[in-house]
């Protein structure tokens, strides 16, 4: 039985959360960005976006601001999910 789009997204998100400690725990705002079923209907392609703090911090230009401001950048991962089993087959960097 083929899995539906919701199941594919849940599989991708669970996979990502399970390996989060290997790619950095400072990941925030995980959101669904894109979903696509392959033409042959064998795979779901699920793109998740997340925010990660940029390594450098800089002082705010506002003179009264004492605290450091942290900048975040958005990153994206694309997951290939087997449409029959729901197994995650791959995770790749998604360039935008």
Question: What can you see in these coordinates?
Answer:
Helix content is 19%, strand content 50%. It is of the alpha+beta class and 96 residues long. The model has no long low-confidence stretch (mean pLDDT 88). Strand 3 and strand 4 form a beta hairpin. The two termini are 33 Å apart. It has 2 helices and 4 strands. It has helices at 5-18, 20-23; strands spanning 28-37, 43-59, 68-82, 88-93. It has one domain (5-93). Strands 1-2-3-4 form a 4-stranded antiparallel beta sheet, covered by helices on one side.
Number of strands: 4
Note the beta-strand portion.
Answer: over 45%
Mean pLDDT: 88
How far apart, in Å, are the first and last alpha carbons? 33 Å
CA-atom Rg in angstroms: 17 Å
Shape: elongated
**SSE string, helices as H and strands as E:** HHEEEE
Uncertain stretches of 5 or more adjacent residues: none
Give a brief outline of the structure.
By secondary structure, this protein is of the alpha+beta class.
Could you list some keywords that capture this structure?
50% strand; 4 strands; 96 residues; alpha+beta
């Amino acid at each position: 039985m083929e899995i539906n789009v919701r199941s594919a997204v849940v599989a991708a998100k669970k996979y990502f959360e399970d390996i989060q400690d290997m790619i950095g725990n400072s990941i925030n705002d995980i959101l669904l960005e894109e979903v696509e079923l392959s033409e042959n209907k064998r795979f779901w392609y699920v793109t998740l976006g997340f925010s990660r703090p940029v390594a450098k911090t800089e002082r705010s230009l506002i003179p009264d601001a004492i605290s450091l401001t942290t900048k975040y950048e958005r990153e994206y991962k694309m997951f290939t999910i087997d449409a029959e089993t729901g197994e995650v087959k791959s995770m790749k960097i998604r360039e935008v």
